[in-house]
Amino acid sequence: MAEKVRFIIERQDGPNDKPYNQEFDVDYRPGLNVVAALMEIQKNPVTVDGKRVAPVTWECNCLEKVCGACMMVINGRARQACCALVDEIKKPIHLAPARTFPVIRDLLIDRSVMFESLKKIQGWVELDGSWDVKDAPIQNPYTAQTAYEISHCMTCGCCLEACPNVGPQSDFIGPAPTVFSIFTRSENLTRPNVLTRLWKRAALPVAATVKIASKFAPNLSSLQLTSRS
Amino acid sequence: MFHTTFYVRRLHSLCGLLILGFFILEHIGTNSMALAGPAFFNGVMGMVEEIPKPIFYSIEIGMYAVPFLFHGLYGIYIALQANNNPLRFGYLRNWNFTLQRWTAWFLVVFLIWHIGYLRIYLKGVLGNPISFELLQNMFSNPIVAILYVLGMWAAIFHFCNGITTFCMTWGITKGPRAQNVISLISMGLCAALCLATVAFMSSYYIY
Question: What is the pTM of this model?
Answer without folding.
Answer: 0.82
